[in-house]
Amino acid sequence: MRAVVADALRPYLAVLTARFRMLLQYRAAAFAGFGTQLFWGAVRLMILGAFYASSETESPMNLVQIAAYVWLGQALLGLLPWNVDAELQEKMTTGAVAYELLRPLDLYTFWFARTVALRTATTFLRMIPMIVVAGLVLPLIGLGAWALPPPATAVNALCFVVSLTATVALASVITMLMHVALIWTLSGRGFNALMTGLVIALSGLVVPLPLYPDWMQPWLYWQPFRGLADVPFRIYSGNIVASAAVAEIFMQFCWAVLIGGIGYAILSRAQARIVVQGG
Amino acid sequence: MQFCRARRRGSWCRVAELHNNLALYARLIGVSIRGQMQYRASFLLMSFGQFVVTGVEILGIWALFTRFGSLTPWTLPQVAFFYGVVNISFAFTDALARGFDLFGTQFVKTGNFDRLLLRPRSTVLQLAGHEFTLARVGRLLQGLIVLLWASNALALEWDAARLALLAFTLLATFMFFYGLVILCAVLSFWTTESLEIMNALTYGGVETAQYPMAIYHKYFQRFFTFVIPLAMVTYFPILAILDIPDPLGSTRTLQVVAPLAGFVFFGVTLLAWRVGVRHYTSTGS
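Output (structure tokens, whole complex):
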């Protein structure tokens, strides 16, 4: 039984590792991306810092938690489903997608493996220098107040790692939804543009979600995008305590399964009536 | 050029040449617009996408003001005014500088720049006319809405002087960002690829200038005033338009003259472009 499962998964794992290795080749781009993210993180922190400095009101997050939120957001930016696989998009517009349909593999799982590599490989490269600079270099040059703090507790650190796994799953199924939308070339692009806006606003990337007005909080709680950034980052900084983290992580996985299921169903239906472009 | 085949390049000849170049530029832009209008649905969707993605930012600013009450001494309408000016200007740059934006990946890496060099027109003209990206109207529209709201909330009276200064500021900011995109393109002569780091300066510049420069760290302010003159084209003149004092202590005269730096910066990047072109060696294939 075990051998059968392993055999069935082998092609997908091969796709995943091959794509991962290929994407790791773009070191110069990763380095440039790191510089960009460092700049963005600094700007965001200065803006938020200025708001904190000019207000006496009690805030749902303290500045140390904000620093963790902003730096993790910049370090893990690549994880967020804000773009699609450019090669896959090219295949859709040129009609080369026909070859993909011919493979004796499950299309959703095949693309899903590609997507996981897309989300993790570049992030993996960028994350390390970002964490080194934000966590170690900043305190050394006297900017300790703006540095990435260590995780709140050891338990929080552990929960953060598990939560991040859920984030990868969730980000990948949302990216898959965008890949599936590409089949409807034109409307798909509109849908994806809208998704990018939703992801940026509702994950906490523009403004940490707890800082939105109080009356919006219930609405922000019951939506899948917060599992992309808000949940793992707040677990890291202790803004979500370890005892509450388990329920949050469970919800992340639930959203991933739900959205994955929707994507799978749409792709299965689309495959039955697909029209290949080009010639 | 055909008007000036004779060696004597008189002033008449130069005027004719300029006229000819402008006509060509207008023609290139016209072709680009007609081309995009063939795909009307695509254009509408892309514009809508731009509107949503760039509009998210003002939502963030509003949320922070709601949460914290104020950003002493700045108010939400004032910050919104900064936001509107920067986004309107950058929408134009983003639409008109597409050729330079794509330069690294589509011209240097592929060797396509060779073809531009063979044509009897300046490379700057050809790249400037490469594409007029209509979809940027999404950013323009949301910037315009925010600016109108801010102007209304601040009860600004638009006399001739204020309008002129606003026009001057918008133009200077447009030129500044255009220069920045050219500078990115110049770098790709050496890197043979468009480097994402430059996004930090263009998109990051937009992000930075959406808030008053005074809220940032001192070194950051100096960098964006003296090295990359972003504050000169946005922060200083907008203070004069809004008629409010500068926490950094600049005088009114300086604030009104400051946007000139945008034009100077543009000129410097054109010089850098020349150096880059001279350095160019084809990737060949």
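The CA atoms of residues 89 and 182 of chain A lie 7 Å apart.
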